């Protein structure tokens, strides 16, 4: 069973607006770590929104972990996203009014299950933070953390409950090169341990070597991108 | 949903300065609105409560408003008098229960002096029929005794037994200009505060009032004028000694005894209130003096209508206050929606649906409005509870604490609805950008 399967998908932001995304085929196997090259304006945000179930395509099918999310209702897709997909963004991943531990536990509020071997989301969150070297910071305000630490907290949150798919959107672009190396290594290790599939999106092709496979979005998105926009 | 609730609470607490300022701004506008409304009501109450249980006010034929103004509010003075025959005529009517005559036109340290009978203190009622009480002492008995209102007593520091010199001619500031030093009145009673013009008045007997004039005019002049009552109008214009607007002579001296022959007017109580209209017609059409009898309630309503600009101004102020409160709410939510886009995006990414996001945003708006209204009402009523005894003592303005008036409830409801609408409107903006942002990383 594939972790992600996109076929013949067309999407535009409105009935009279031009198509921004048209992908005939994209497949990720379970446990695979894929690098998606997505420069600005290639339709990257749109693609992630579609996979996350925030938008629905006008045509085509999107299957995540074997389930066709295009046939789900909006609330079903929201619950599915909460359960099965962990997101990591470029920067400002964390909710400023929650402490480190609360940020990691956030998905549990929306239906993320707990991984086997843990009795509560809190236990699992603590364990993840310890593995990522943040064990002493769990009560800290997220604003006290460095960018590198913040990104690690974001990884811990994405991994909570061992979701089937982890989508990382430029998570390293705000990091310096040393931190970037260790971040990538850590992400790979953790994803492997949890058995999660990773879709890593970046405009920086130099990072591709750390992944099993790389795909270029400008090549698979056959709509010519709008100039100057990201959609 | 408990998770969402605690998130919303934490989010509000994180933005506590803005949250608290928003609540304060709403609560101030609510408190001001209610306060202005209460002040208006209290003013209107004090105004229309200035006289009660008096069925007719009768005076010389002038205007309704001028009769009301000088008889009840002691503002201005009559230009004509009513003869004692008129008072007696009224007294003789079978429908009449009581008649209390009064004489105006003199002042004491800027406070009006009213000549009347001690029955005034029993018959004159205010608000909803409250009786006039003596804080200390009792009504005047002799013609050189006086009763003073609470404000006269406190402003001038007068107590029982104090000797006061009353002057002829009523001036607004300071003593009357023709003070008479040899003829002091002794204070025998001080009225309890009523919140009516009684507080600012000095009461003496009708004869006492006449005595003031007698000293001034000299006996012969008084008699002459009394004889020549018809020329009173002329006198007013010709006699420049009298450049105050006092009416014609109102007494005569027979065998050394003072006899009051005319008064400024009289209050009248009917045996049955239903007879008031009948009596009014009878008095207005009497063949003797040209009389004007007015119904206090109707005259009061007419006067209040003339002052409606005051009420309108207060209402305009109230609505501006409320408008600015709601605008403040909108601005704060609108600004928040900008910098909360990121927060919304994170929540969406971890699985919050559109409904959850919307409930969070709109719930916050509703909470702010509710908290603001509650705090505002608390502020107002707390403030009133603390201040009203003082206001009552100091200004005799009774701001009633009657829990919630229907106006207040209506306003609270309207503010809640409008506040929620505005809050939801601002939330829709935040919601739409949250939905449109998707998982984008644009800043």
Question: What can you tell me about this protein's structure?
Answer:
By secondary structure, chain A is α/β, with parallel strands linked by helices. Chain A has one domain (2-220): P-loop containing nucleotide triphosphate hydrolases (Rossmann fold, 3-Layer(aba) Sandwich), CATH 3.40.50. Chain A is built from seven helices and nine strands, in the order E-E-E-H-E-E-H-E-H-H-H-E-H-E-E-H. In chain A, the strands form two sheets. In chain A, strands 6-7-8-3-9 form a five-stranded parallel β-sheet. A four-stranded antiparallel β-sheet of chain A has the order 2-1-4-5, covered by helices on one side. The model of chain A is unreliable at 225-231 (pLDDT under 50). Chain B has 443 residues and is an alpha+beta fold. Chain B has two domains: 2-47 and 307-437, no CATH class; 56-294, no CATH class. Helix content of chain B is 54%, strand content 19%. Chain B contains 15 helices and 16 strands. Chain B has helices at residues 2-14, 16-48, 64-72, 84-92, 120-123, 150-156, 206-217, 219-227, 232-238, 276-284, 296-306, 308-339, 341-349, 354-395, 406-437, and strands at 56-60, 82-83, 96-108, 111-116, 125-126, 130-131, 134-137, 145-148, 163-168, 178-191, 202-205, 251-254, 257-260, 262-263, 265-270, 291-294. In chain B, the strands form four sheets. In chain B, strands 1, 3, 4, 7, 8, 9, 10, 11, 15 and 16 form a ten-stranded mixed β-sheet that branches. In chain B, strand 3 and strand 4 form a beta hairpin. In chain B, helix 1 crosses helix 14 (354-395). Chain B starts with a helix and ends in a 6-residue tail after the last helix. The relative contact order of chain B is 0.18. The chains are: A alpha/beta (231), B alpha+beta (443). Chains A and B meet through helix 1, helix 2 and helix 3 of A and helix 1, helix 13 and helix 14 of B.
